[in-house]
Amino acid sequence: MSNSDRIKQIKMFLNDSPHDEFMNYALATEYIALGHDQEALELFEKLVSMSPLYFATYYHLGKLYEKMGNTGSAISIYEKGLSVTKKLNENHAYAELKGAYDALIY
User: Fold this and answer.
1) pTM
2) Which of 24, 29, 62, 72 sits at 20 to 30 Å (Cα–Cα) from 13?
């Protein structure tokens, strides 16, 4: 199945459940795979706002900010993600965010 076919399927699902965290996340990652960074950015930012405890978003949004040359926003989103993952005791996600954060600021 191609990325565009997956995007069509995800969008159909989102028509019925527009606030589904995983489906919004999945759609954003499909957009990244196709190089549609602006669409991915909008979805990730919406997801962080809508579901701030959906911690998987922070790493990918930070990396997207880095790719787009927005270092300040990347640092900020990594810091928020570190706070969330620490609070949720998500040690693996915390370590990934910490590695990305440290690589950016040091």
Assistant:
1) 0.93
2) 62
